[in-house]
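Why does residue order matter? Because the sequence determines the fold. Keep that principle in mind as you read this record.
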Amino acid sequence: MKHITLERGLSRNTCLAYASDLEQFFAHLGARDPLTASSDDLSDYLWELKTKRKLEPVTLFRKIEALRSFYSYLAAEQRITCSPAQSFRAPRLPARLPRYLSQEDTERLLSAPLDGSFEMARSRVMIELLYATGMRVTELLSLTPESVNLQDGWVRVLGKGSKERLIPVHERAVGLLKQYLTLRARKFPAPGPELFLNRRGQSLSRVSFWRDLSAFGRKAGLKTKLHPHLLRHTFATHLLQGGADLRCVQEMLGHASLGTTQIYTHLDKSELKKSHAKHHPRG
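Structure:
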């Protein structure tokens, strides 16, 4: 399950749970090869979990995700022609509030000491840019130098469905980008087309950046396990807590629906208590 840990930022406990779920499915199949399982086999198994074992929707959802991940990986590795779980629909779950970093932890992350290497400087500006724009990690890694307008403070992002959007970038991120571009030109006379490059001057992988982000979190002394999407959640939450307009945040995130953005209108308990004390007549 290593590829799931790296790609999706899942915890070790979740990956262990996925492994246990797959072992249960293999036991259900008996002597049959899991690579030959059909969608009907999976449906029968899940129906048994739902009707006979009376599993809660959350547990059933996780087991479906484990099967999806397993067979998607096999299909990507061309060990099977297509995933038998590709058409499955997970049970509807109540909306979960996204996790995010506090402003204090975010500042600690962005102030972590550097070791003077090109790799650390690159990762530092990537983290700053994710927090400055809220873009997805795939969007970040696909940026080119031409995507960034340093003079006016904008970055052009190509999002889902090849939809293009412009996101403003604050001066601190612009300053770091200028420094990085100077280092990039000095290190690579003939670099690849992407903005962010690995040590060979080629495109940087998601796995490499995930590892760099985790290393920064350890340097900053953060207990929260970091993954790129956490910075997207943090960007949206901090903007809305600061009073930003919901539709502006929707535009910057590239959400097709305002309803998707509304989940970020939550406040942590401390902010909720402060607001209650400040505004209630008997506060």
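Residues 57-76 form the longest helix (20 residues).
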